[in-house]
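From the methods appendix. Each design record in this collection lists the tokenized structure first, followed by the designed amino acid sequence. Records were kept in a plain field format so they could be parsed without special tools. The example shown here is representative of the layout used throughout.

RECORD:
FOLD TOKENS (252 positions):
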């Protein structure tokens, strides 16, 4: 279990997270939603140890993450940030190889190559594995980065706005892949998403932040209702049932 206890984060006089407490359910997709500046990316970065909290602690399987050695942490938690700019010319396979670094320190063994091959196949990248990253479409590039995460083979996967700059088709592809990672491989995924309908259709649990505070959390079914969405986003929603999914209409 991943336990987040009383996490706060400040930059000078500006408080961006305030007493954030949450237990993350294993083997589920937990989506973080809220307006810009609500603190979603900050809490994900603290869990990933990309930044330090000012107060509170995070426990991974009962152990404070601050006590876990870097390479051991990289075998337990993987993270994909909002922006992933690589300045060297790499093929898809070379990029995915990096996912095995915590295990092989750059010297790929048989089991590492097999893990890379599985990741490429899982993301439908095998046929284009020798293409360079800078030659790819946005959707292909994002799939390549997620393949690197899959090759890393961590139980916990953290994704910060993985649908940024993707069109509808590629966004759906990415969310279906995340759903498969949970349903078929038992991964635990934490993802920041701005589109409430993707959160509604693909999440198990939704966590809502506002002004640095956790204001509501629950299953997707519990969270997607007019009253909750009005409180989270300060606008009115109309909820429609479509193919057993709750679709949020907010264009008025």
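DESIGN:
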């Amino acid at each position: 279990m991943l336990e987040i206890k009383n996490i706060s984060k400040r930059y000078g006089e500006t408080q961006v997270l305030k007493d954030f407490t949450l237990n993350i359910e294993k083997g589920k997709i937990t989506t973080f939603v809220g307006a810009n500046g609500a603190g979603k990316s900050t809490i994900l970065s603290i869990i990933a140890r990309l930044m330090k909290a000012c107060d509170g602690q995070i426990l991974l399987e009962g152990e404070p993450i601050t006590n876990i050695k870097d390479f051991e942490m990289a075998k337990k938690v993987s993270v994909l940030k909002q922006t992933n700019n690589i300045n060297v010319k790499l093929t898809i396979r070379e990029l995915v190889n990096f996912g095995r670094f915590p295990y092989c320190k750059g010297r790929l063994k048989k089991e590492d190559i097999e893990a890379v091959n599985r990741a490429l196949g899982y993301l439908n990248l095998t046929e284009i594995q020798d293409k360079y990253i800078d030659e790819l479409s946005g959707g292909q590039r994002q799939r390549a980065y997620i393949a690197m995460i899959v090759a890393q083979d961590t139980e916990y996967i953290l994704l910060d706005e993985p649908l940024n700059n993707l069109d509808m088709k590629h966004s759906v592809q990415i969310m279906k892949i995340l759903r498969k990672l949970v349903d078929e491989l038992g991964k635990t995924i934490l993802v920041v998403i701005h589109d409430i309908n993707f959160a509604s259709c693909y999440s198990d649990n939704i966590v809502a932040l506002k002004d640095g505070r956790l204001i509501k959390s629950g299953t997707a079914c519990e969270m997607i209702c007019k009253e909750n969405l009005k409180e989270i986003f300060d606008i009115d929603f109309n909820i429609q049932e479509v193919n057993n999914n709750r679709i949020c209409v907010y264009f008025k």
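APPENDIX NOTE: Residues 168-185 form the longest helix (18 residues).
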